Amino acid sequence: MHGKKCGLKIKKLLFYTLTTSLPLILLLATEGLLRLWGVGMTYRLLLPAGSEWQVNPNAAAKYFSSRDIAIPELIGQRFERGKGSSVYRIVCLGGSTTAGYPYEVNINFPFFIQQRLQDCWSERRVEVVNLGVSAVNSLAVLDLASQVMPLQPDMVVVYMGHNEFYGAPGGASTEALPGNRLVMRMILKLRQLRLYQTLRQLVAPRAAPRAARTTLMEALIRNHNIPPDSPLYATTHRHFEANLTDLVRFFQKKAVPVVLCTIASNLADQEPLDYLAGGADSGSAAYSLFRQGCLWLRQDSVALARELFARARDADAIRFRAASPINRIIRRVADSLNVPLADSERQFAQESRQGIPGYDFFLEHLHPNPVGYDLIARTIVARILQPEPLPVNAGAGADCLRARSIQSLAGYTLLDEWIGELKVAQLIREYPFNGRGRQRAVDPDELIVRQIAGRHVAGELLWDEAHFKLGDYYVTQRHYALAESEYRAVQGAFPKHPTAGVKIGDALAEQQRWSEALAQYHTAAHNQPESHFLYAKIGLIAIASRRYDEAISALEQLIILEQNQRRLTGAEMIEARYLLALAYARTAQIDRARQQVNTILNLQPNHSATLLLSSQLDQYPAHR
């Protein structure tokens, strides 16, 4: 009887367990099938790509629900999964300033940090991972931060705070999430599930087209007026402090050092956005303060002007520029958690004209120009080197901080600057700027540069294609040094780019800089070991520079590749064999030279250069 009761209890327990877990099993099975069928998107920050981690450009799509806006992407980057001991890897987190808006991959402070540190730290390879995302706030950055540990960062740098209201999922944005921070974080986790994505697509109402909205900045504004005494103002700053604190503590638990940065914006030259949006009849208190600041600045009352400009920024009801409480929070968190602080706000004030940042460092309301981005980089590098400096080369530490031209160090060109200028021109044409802002004048000598930049901004040319297009134009004009600069801009951003090294080599060869050209071709061949034409180029340039052994090695490799897979025409192969015969002859390998000559003449008996070489070989005794 006892056994029957025991068996009955077990059956009831099994039945209860099965009935309660069946929904979960069905949900897991559905999720698995959706992933198997490729339904939905993967929002993982890092995707495995062989021996490397690939930064997922679409990872930020998780923070946006609208279907009719251009969702910002992360910069596509690859890093070795097994980070060697010689690598020092820094991860930079933040919004559009971290990403480098409005520029492309080679004008942003993370890239400049890498260039400056690597320039004075040759013993190790410096890698800086740029995980900046435009139009997201600190909650989204915190979510991304939780996924970076597979990169094995040696340090994390955080520059954020301008997007707290309008960046997704900020409370004043069209991407706002309901509930408290815990609920919002749970929603972001759920968005990773393919089942959630599918249901979201089915039940979400189709958004009405925003025909009049052409910028992401405008599309994200829900609350156009946020006074400093509003509950939303207080809640947003409270959430920012909580998010920043959680981010720092996450990395502290992982024993990863963190550097926090104060943030800067255009004070002297940016009229308040609520005034620009509403016009002269807007009744903007911020504009009144701004005008007073301009008046006092003209009378050289710099301290009073600086205070008025800061108050004008804080009073601006359209809150794209972070108000003073944001930097106070950043300083408070850095102090309370004992985290190093890179005080960008202070550094901009120190290096700006009259101590008030304006168009000398900024393009519009808050995004820096190249000099401004480098100022952020130098501020961060200075903090990285203190109080426990990295083991830089002896006497070279000052080079990391020197305010010399970052353009020569980072390798960006006028094309990169014009790409940024044209994007800003698009931005300030729309709300809330309504056409009010600085415009760069076009020098006649820059017209071709501006045209190609325009084609890139319009989506007709990829970034590397734009540089190659301009470089190829310079080649037609015999401006080989300018062409080389365009090609090197691509190589600087993507050292393993399959085309950049070849084009640099071609430009160097046109300048008869044979050794440098060969170095570029060899690097390209290392990255593309199956590239037949590269070995042909190496052979040709090596013979031209009388490096016959180097030519022989390349041309022999070319013939081996051609035997396995034909890529060259018959005429091209005859020329390659002729060059190899010539190199053999110049190194007194007469028998091998004759073998190549005979092969050529069997294929083309009247090949004049080979006939001449054959007659010359008859004067040599057989050797080797």
Let me know the number of strands.
8
- Lateral strand order in the biggest sheet: 5-4-6-7-8
**Uncertain segments:** none
CATH architecture of the largest domain: 3-Layer(aba) Sandwich
Q: From the alpha carbons, calculate the radius of gyration and give it in angstroms.
A: 31 Å
- By helix and strand content, what is the structural category? alpha/beta
| First and last CA, distance | 100 Å
Q: What do we call the CATH homologous superfamily of the largest domain? A: SGNH hydrolase
Tally of distinct domains: 3
Described by strand count, sense and barrel closure, the largest sheet is:
5 strands, parallel
Helix content estimate: 40-55%
Average pLDDT reading: 88
Helices, by number, come to: 27
What fold name stands as the CATH topology of the largest domain?
Rossmann fold
* Overall 3D form: globular
Classified by CATH, the class of the largest domain is Alpha Beta
Task: Offer a concise description of the structure.
The protein has 624 residues and is an alpha/beta fold. Helices cover 54% and strands 6% of the residues.
